[in-house]
Write a structure and sequence with these properties.
Four copies of one chain form a homotetramer. Chain A is an all-alpha fold and about 190 residues long. Chain A has ten helices and no strands. Chains A and B meet through helix 6, helix 7, helix 9 and helix 10 of A and helix 6, helix 7, helix 9 and helix 10 of B. The structure holds a DNA duplex (31 and 31 nucleotides).
Chain lengths: ~190, ~190, ~190, ~190
Amino acid sequence: MSAHRQGPVRSEAARVAVLEATARLFAARGYDHLTMEGIAVEASVSKQTIYRWWPSKGAIVADCLLEGRLLVDSLAPPDNGDVRADLVGWIGEVFGVAERAVGETLLQSVIAAAADNPDVGQRLHDALAVEGSVIDRLQLGIDAGQLAADAPIDELAEALVGALILRALSRKPAEPESARRLVNALLGPTPA
Amino acid sequence: MSAHRQGPVRSEAARVAVLEATARLFAARGYDHLTMEGIAVEASVSKQTIYRWWPSKGAIVADCLLEGRLLVDSLAPPDNGDVRADLVGWIGEVFGVAERAVGETLLQSVIAAAADNPDVGQRLHDALAVEGSVIDRLQLGIDAGQLAADAPIDELAEALVGALILRALSRKPAEPESARRLVNALLGPTPA
Amino acid sequence: MSAHRQGPVRSEAARVAVLEATARLFAARGYDHLTMEGIAVEASVSKQTIYRWWPSKGAIVADCLLEGRLLVDSLAPPDNGDVRADLVGWIGEVFGVAERAVGETLLQSVIAAAADNPDVGQRLHDALAVEGSVIDRLQLGIDAGQLAADAPIDELAEALVGALILRALSRKPAEPESARRLVNALLGPTPA
Amino acid sequence: MSAHRQGPVRSEAARVAVLEATARLFAARGYDHLTMEGIAVEASVSKQTIYRWWPSKGAIVADCLLEGRLLVDSLAPPDNGDVRADLVGWIGEVFGVAERAVGETLLQSVIAAAADNPDVGQRLHDALAVEGSVIDRLQLGIDAGQLAADAPIDELAEALVGALILRALSRKPAEPESARRLVNALLGPTPA
DNA sequence: AAATAAACGAGACGGTACGTCCCGTCTTAGA
DNA sequence: TCTAAGACGGGACGTACCGTCTCGTTTATTT
C-alpha cells in the first residue's frame, strides 16, 4: 500500500529534447512559425508526449525562458563603472541580439509570445525588469553615488525596459544618440 | 492619350466593409482569433478581394489603426489641470479599456498585432507616443509650469507608454498607487 | 523483431464512408460536380483523410468502380437464350440506367472519369468489355451454336462496348432498331 | 430609319483569336487545364468578349472542332487500295497523333470534352464516324469488291471508332497486331 | 518472476484556416 | 455599342497544423 505510482517516470531526455528543439526553432524562425508538430519532429518526440506535459506552445516557450534558453546572459547590463554609459551600451547590445536572428526576430518574437501567453509575459517581466539585471545595475549606480539615493529604481527599470520594447515593436533603429537621450531622460543628467 | 487605367475601380464599399468587420472581430475576439476567412464572412466579401488589397491580417489591422477604428479617442490623456494626476488617471483608463474586451484583450491584442506586423508597430508607436496625445499633454504641463521647461518630453512619453505595454504584457494589475509611483519616477515629484 | 508499424491503423470506417459518399454523389450529380470537399462533408470525414489515401477524385472513383459501387450488376447482359436479342435488350438497358440520373449522366460521367483518370479507364475497360459480362455472353452464344466457333469475341466485345460509348458521347437516342442493326453488323445475321 | 443595329459589329479578329488560342492551349495542356481566363489572356481578349459569344469552354472547343482546328485532316483514313490494311495503318496513326501531345492527351482530351459537352459529342461523332472519312473509306472498299455489297458500313464505322475510343480511354497501347485483329473481326477476313 | 500500468514513438483522425485559382457577372473608359 | 481591363462574390483546390485518439513497445514498480 502506497501512494507511489506504477510504471515509468517522466523521461528527462524527452523534456530536454523538447526545450532544446523549441529554443532552436524559436531562434531560427520566430514564435509565429513555431508549431507543435515542428517541435515534435525536431525533438524526435511524439506530439502526445508534448501535450502530456505542456498545454500550449506558449507554455513551452515560458519554460525555455525560465531555464534561460532564449535570452542569453549577455542580456544583463555590464558594470564598467558608469551607469549611464553602461545602460546606453546595453541597449545597443539588446537590439543587436534582436537583429541577429532572421528578419529581426528574437526580441519581437519574445514579445509576441508574451502577448500570446500570460506565463511568458510574467517571465519576460521578471527576466528583464526584475530578477536582477537592470535593477541591480541601477542599485550599483546608487551605491556609486551616480544616482540619487532615493531613485525609484523599480519604476525606472520598468520604464527603461518598456521603452525598449516599444522601440522593438515600432522597429525604430536604435542609434546610440537616441539611447543616450532616453537614459538621460530617465536618470537625469550626470551629476557634477 | 492618358495614364488612366481602364476597368472598374476599387470598391470603396468593400474596403470599408473589411475594415469595419476587422475592427468588430478584433474588439470581440482579439488578434489571434482574427482570421482572413472570418473577416471575409463578416464583411460579406470574398477572400480574393481581401487578398487583392491587403497582404496579411496585420496589414488590415494597421489600416484600422490608421483610421482610428481600433483605439478610440478616449485614449488621449485628459486635461484637468494637473499633469501628474491626469496621467495617473489616464493609465487606469487605458487598462480599463483593455479589460473591457473578452479575456482582457484589446491592448494585448494590439501588441500582438504589432509584434506580428511592422506597420502595426509603427502606427502603434505613433498613435500612442507621438501623434499628440501623451506628448501634447506633457507639453501642456510644461506650459503650466508643472514640468521643467527643458523636460525631454519625447523620451518621457516613450518611457511612459513603454512601461504601460510592459505591464500589459506581464498582466500586472494596474493599481492607482503603482501608477502614481511610475508617473512620479518619470516626471519627478510635484514642484513646490 | 518485427516489420509491423506502430500506431493506429487505417480506419476502415473512414474508407468505406468515403467510397459510399462518392458513389452517392456521383450517381446524383455526375463526375464533374463531384468535389473533394463535397465528398468530405457527405462522408463526415476530413479532407486530409481523403488526401492521405487518394491522390485525386479520379482515384476514388476508380476504387468505387473496382468495388462495384458504381455500375451495378444489372449491367451484365442477360441470358435468355438468344445472343442477339439479349444484347439488343441489354443495350437498351444500359442507356436506360444511364438516363436514370440527373441530366443523363451515369455512363457519360463514367466516361468523363475515365478520360480524366487512367485507372478509371482501365477499370472501365475491364468492367465492361473483359471481366466477363459481354465476353461471357458471347461465349455462351458460341456454345449454343448461334455464333461461329471461331468468332473473335474479344474484339467483338470491344467494338460493341466502344460503339455504346460513342453513342453515349454523341447523345444519340438508342432506339431498339438501331441497336439491332448494330448487333447484326457485328455478329452477322442469325444463322438459319 | 432602318433595322440595322448600331455600333460596331462582332470583331472577327477577336473570334479567330479565341479559337486559335483555344486550339493552342488545348493541344498543349488538354481539356481539363483549359480555362476561360487562360484563353482570354492567350487571345488578348477580355473575358466578357468570350462570354458574349460562347456560353462555355465546351462550346468554344466545339467550334474549334467544327472548323477543323483540333483534329487534323490526317485523321482521314488513306486510300492505298486495301481497305483492311488502310484501316489498320490509320488506327496506328490516330494513336500516334494522340500520343504526340503532352502526356498522351489529344484524343483523350477530345473525349473529355465530349463527355462534358453535348455539342462536342455530336461533332466528334460526325467528325470521326460520319462526315466521310471512315464511312467513305468503307464505301470505297465495297466499290473495290473487298467488302460485301450489303455491308452495314454505318454501323461498322461506329463500332470501329467506338473501339478506338475505348482503347484510348483504357490506355491500352495500340499494337499493329491488335489493330489487325480488330479490323478483321469487324470486316471479316479478306475474301479469296 | 509475473502482472500491471504509465510513458513513449508513431501517426490516423475530424477539424479550421490558409493562400491560390477560376468561375461567371459586373463596371469603367476608350475606340 | 463593342471592346480590353479588371474588380467583385463565390466555391473548390491542396496544404499545414491543431488537439485528440489509438496503436504496439518499453520500462519501472508492485504483487
